[in-house]
Design a protein that fits this description.
alpha/beta; TIM Barrel; 8 strands; globular; binds D-xylitol-5-phosphate; binds zinc ion; EC 5.1.3.1; Ribul_P_3_epim
């Protein structure tokens, strides 16, 4: 069993004080910085690009930065985010013309690749690429916005992915993203996830450490 990773989504952080807010959430016990990149084309919202990733690195953030690309096409931004200091980079397979090539590009740029599945995206995109994956990200909301409600049927999808990972024999993390809270994180872990993105659940609280500790307590039970 891999150590659980808590990955706050900076989509819900204070953009006017982003460096400080990211520092604060890491000091509160977060493991990974989740970076939601939206292009107002693949998803109906617009966020931030590689400049912000680079700025966080220059500010002194050394924790892994987990870039979740909700963009189409993907390859140009893969290169730019890798150069900007990304650690993990994932994309939605239906947004790439050549999935294997995009995964290989992430590896060649020195980052760890992942594929992202929307609630209704079939898992067959995993066929033939399991050997390249560092993580599989299961969306438990439709992508585009923070603060949405967890879609319960995605737990079955996490279970199905867990089974595929076990059968493959590869060491692949299973990440969950959307509507993760203190009161559902344990059920999500039991289904097989080991990396947990949480935006509004953490950044809406004054005391980040309190909510992250509560999440870890749930995971330890
Ligand atoms: C949605 C993003 C998520 C989102 C999670 O498209 O990928 O990372 O910010 O936010 P919460 O935890 O508020 O659902
Ligand atoms: Zn995300």
């Amino acid at each position: 069993m891999k150590p659980f990773l808590i990955a706050p989504s900076i989509l819900s952080a204070d953009f006017a004080r982003l460096g400080e807010d990211v520092e604060k959430v890491l000091a509160a016990g977060a493991d990974v910085v989740h970076f939601d990149v939206m292009d107002n084309h693949y998803v109906p919202n617009l966020t931030f690009g590689p400049m912000i990733c680079e700025a966080l690195r220059k500010y002194g953030i050394t924790a892994p930065i987990d870039v979740h690309l909700m963009v189409k096409p993907v390859d140009d931004l893969i290169e730019k985010f890798a150069d900007a200091g990304a650690s993990f980079i994932s994309f939605h397979p239906e947004a790439s013309e050549h999935i294997d090539r995009s995964l290989q590009l992430i590896i060649d740029k020195g980052c760890k690749p992942g594929l992202v599945f929307n609630p209704a995206t079939p898992l067959h995109y995993l066929d033939h690429v399991m050997d390249k994956l560092h993580h599989i990200l299961i969306m438990s909301v439709n992508p585009g916005f923070g603060g949405q409600k967890f879609i319960p049927t995605t737990l079955d999808k996490v279970r199905a992915v867990k089974q595929r990972v076990e059968e493959s024999g590869y060491d692949i993390r299973i990440e969950i993203d959307g509507g993760v809270k203190v009161d559902n994180i344990r059920a999500i872990a039991e289904a097989g996830a080991d990396m947990f993105v949480a935006g509004s659940a953490i950044f809406s609280q004054d005391d980040y450490s309190d909510v992250i500790t509560q999440m870890r307590n749930e995971l330890a039970m």
